Structure formats: C-alpha cells, structure tokens
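=== RUN LOG ===
request id: a7f3
mode: sequence -> structure
chains: 1
length: 136
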Amino acid sequence: MEGYVTPTVTVRDLRFGQNTPVEAVLRREPAVGQRVLSPEIAALVHQELIGVVERGTARRAQGGIRLPDGAIIPIGGKTGTGDNQFKVFGRGGYPITSHAVNRTAAFAFWSVIVSLGLCWRSFPANQRKITNSQVP
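=== RESULT ===
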C-alpha cells in the first residue's frame, strides 16, 4: 500500500511446550499501517523514485529485477554522495583543519520484492569525478 508506514515484524509466532499438555502458541496479529502520505503524493513519490533509476543518477539499475519468466519488477531509489572528512580539533572543540580522505556513493532502493536495500562504495579522495565505467 502506497503512502503507509508499517512496523517491521520478524517474529510471527512463539511456540512453547510443543506436543505437551501445556503447549502455548503466541501469535502477533499483522499491524495495520498508518497513512503518512495521501495516495496522490505517494504515487508521485513512487514515480519520481523510479525516474531516478530510469532517467537519473541510478541508470545502472535501469530495467529493474528480471524474473525467470521475463517479467520485470521496477526498482526505484535515491542516490547520494559525500566526502568522508578527516578533521582536527583544537582546544575547546573548535575545528583546526579538515580534508576529504575518500568519497562515498550510496543508493537506497526499493522494489516490490525488496522493501529497502542500500548499496554503497567508497572512492579515494583524488577520484573526484566518478563515471559509470568506474563503478563496478
């Protein structure tokens, strides 16, 4: 459901004393989602995140996930980069110097079968321009 946030549940049930007279099974009822976005906004965000893959900075993931029967599950996500800084602080916690030691690229993504994934890669500081041919 688009526009809802639902809690993550890993444990579906707990079983105690199986095959005994005091056997107990505790099951968690699926939580009902809470609407956090209107359906129209959720649909727009959905399309924009797919656009990041289809037309934007995550084009290397274009085409989504191809299933054995040839069906394609689209992937959407958000890219980001940042410098990992080495900082030196003086008395009182004031910064003295700072320089980039490497660069990190990240891609937070989703699909119908993968709720959320995260890919990242660090690059040396001298490699400022990253092209598709440099990313494995």
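=== NOTES ===
The longest strand covers residues 95-111.
The longest helix spans residues 39-54.
=== END ===
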